[in-house]
Amino acid sequence: MDPVEALRRTAFLLERSRAATYRVKAFRTAADAISGMDGEEVAERVAHGSLEAVRGIGPKTAKVVREAVGGATPGYLASLEEEASAPLASGGEALLAALRGDCHMHSDWSDGGSPIAEMGRTAIDLGHAWAVLTDHSPRLTVANGLSTARLLDQLAVVAELNEQWAPFRLLTGIECDILADGSLDQDPEVLERLDVVVVSVHSKLRMDRAAMTERMLAAVRSPHADILGHCTGRLLGGRTRPRSEFDAERVFAACAEAGTAVEINCRPERLDPPRGLLRQAVASGALFSIDTDAHAPGQLDWQVYGCARAQECGVPVERVVNAWSANRLMEWTGRKSGS
């Protein structure tokens, strides 16, 4: 077994199971270290027991390399594969099978942990026909949001990767902050150039209900807004955060009228919107986007969390934009933006 592939697959499965970041990083760092060697050097280090003398390789990662070079599936990887054979969530399998892409993922250009190329390759490995790169907008400095210049540079990187990856398509996008007045945190002319724009509230989440409602209405009615991201902003589990308060009936009705999809965010600490609001969104007639909001490759396999909730709440597959081809998706966003 290729030792680099074994290390990367181990990291992927650890991310998928929500393991601690330092554990994941150890295997990705070791994969990078091994990928910088030729096969002969790796074999020599295995033979002489000097793998751990290489910076970035520790006892556990060295064991994976030794077992892979020896021709066996590493024991640790085999145990992770066995654990991964159990479904992450109950239900949603049919809807998951219908999905063709993911509209919300981050790279190390903002607050993700991996390069664009690694995120794209993982989407390909998972069977996606397309995926949308949506790094953060400039005012979210805590997430290393992209300035206009950096975003334009990113478009060139994506174009180059698409030349290599056809027929898979990495679509250009952004997760654009909804500012306090409902305007969007990026130059409209730049937003016009992107394939998909996810709009999300990341600041002043405890805003008064009436003010938050007007803020969100302005955003989802923008001709540049395609998807309303994690609408309540809640966080579950360890670092909890209560959901924002807004008039969901009015906001979802505006989404339906404007053709802005409501995101079903798959992150286990978000699972946003909550079931009650998700059922309201279904009743409104709005479109939906079932997105991982992945910040690492292994998290791209989390769509089943959203699919299970979507199935439970009666989301029709024909209203899920991830089930569309890339061409149909861009026809939809193009009509909204007037391009």
How would you portray this structure in words?
The chain is built from 14 helices and seven strands. The protein has helices at 3-16, 21-35, 39-48, 59-69, 75-84, 93-98, 116-125, 148-165, 188-191, 209-220, 248-258, 275-284, 303-312, 326-337, and strands spanning 101-105, 130-133, 169-177, 196-200, 227-228, 261-265, 288-291. Strands 1-2-3-4-5-6-7 form a seven-stranded parallel sheet. The chain has two domains: 3-84, DNA polymerase, domain 1 (Orthogonal Bundle); 93-337, Alpha-Beta Barrel (TIM Barrel). The protein is an alpha/beta fold and 339 residues long.
Précis, in short:
It is built from 14 helices and seven strands.
How would you characterize the largest beta sheet?
7 strands, parallel
Query: In percent, how much strand structure appears in the residues?
Result: 5-15%
Structural class: alpha/beta
Tell me the total number of β-strands: 7
- CATH superfamily annotation of the largest domain: Metal-dependent hydrolases
The unreliable regions are: none
> Which percent bin holds the helix content?
40-55%
Q: What is the CATH class designation of the largest domain?
A: Alpha Beta
Biggest sheet: strand arrangement: 1-2-3-4-5-6-7
CATH architecture of the largest domain: Alpha-Beta Barrel
From the spread of the alpha carbons, the general shape counts as: elongated
- What pattern of helices and strands is seen along the backbone? HHHHHHEHEHEHEHEHEHEHH
CATH topology of the largest domain: TIM Barrel
- End-to-end separation in angstroms reads 48 Å
Number of helices: 14
Q: Taking all residues together, what is the mean pLDDT?
A: 96
Radius of gyration: 21 Å
